[in-house]
Structures are given as structure tokens and as C-alpha cells.
Amino acid sequence: NSRGVASLLKDTIPVTEFSASGPFEGHDLLRRGFTSVKSELLPSHPLELSEKNFRLNQDKTNFDMLRNVQGLHAPLKLQMEFRAVKQVQRLPFLHSSNMALDTLRGNDGCIGFEDILNDPSQSEVMGEPHTMMEYKLGLL
């Protein structure tokens, strides 16, 4: 019987992907998934990408300047301090101001939008402290 099945499979023609081509072709959700309009949009202004990467560009410039002035060890030490400060966080139900990170960057004396109106991405989280801590530790 296995010989018969093999001969049947040998004689079959491989089926290629059937799709209607032309201006009225529909989007195949099963093969391509949902379309995202947001991913297809271009930045609305030429400076938008620059503003999104402002902090990264500023850090790179500061590290380059520090390397030229003090040598290679200075930016490496500062990057290690940044990583150490970023790892220290408060409990999940408490808002963290990241004051140590602001101090390292030299922004502790500056008053910005997030200081007055708060950063929208860090909205207040109300909830049961024990439940939130168990969720963060993976116990739930």
C-alpha cells in the first residue's frame, strides 16, 4: 500500500498559491494578518524623528565629548552608572521619579513638561499592592 500512495503523490501537481491579482484583490487575513494603518504612516514633520530620538542623540553627543576630553574610561563608567540606576525601581504600585537618573544626566535642575503635567506614559496606577507585587514576581 505504501508503494501505491507514493506513486499517487509522485503524480500529483504541486498547488501554488491561488490569489486574484488586479485592482480588486482583497487582503488575505489568514496569510498576512491584520493591516496596521499606523505602521504605514510616515512622520508628519521632518523633525518628528529627531524629537523622538532626542535623548539618545544627546547622550551620544555627551559620550563622544566626554571620550574626547577625558578618555575612553569616562563614558564607560557613566554608562555603567546609568544601567545601575535604571535597574533600581520602586514597587509596582508606587510612582518612580527616577531622580538618580536625572541627576546623572544633569536634568535635576531643569523644570520640564513632565514635572508639571506628568508624563502620560507614567499615569498613576491604583490597585491592590499585594496583587500587583505577586503579578510582577510571576506568582499569579
Automatic annotation (TrEMBL):
InterPro entries: Ump1. It holds the Pfam family UMP1. Keywords: Chaperone. GO terms for biological process: proteasome assembly. GO terms for cellular component: cytoplasm; nucleus. The keyword Chaperone applies. It comes from the Eukaryota. Belongs to the POMP/UMP1 family. PANTHER family: PROTEASOME MATURATION PROTEIN, PROTEASOME MATURATION PROTEIN UMP1. This is POMP protein. It comes from Aegotheles bennettii.
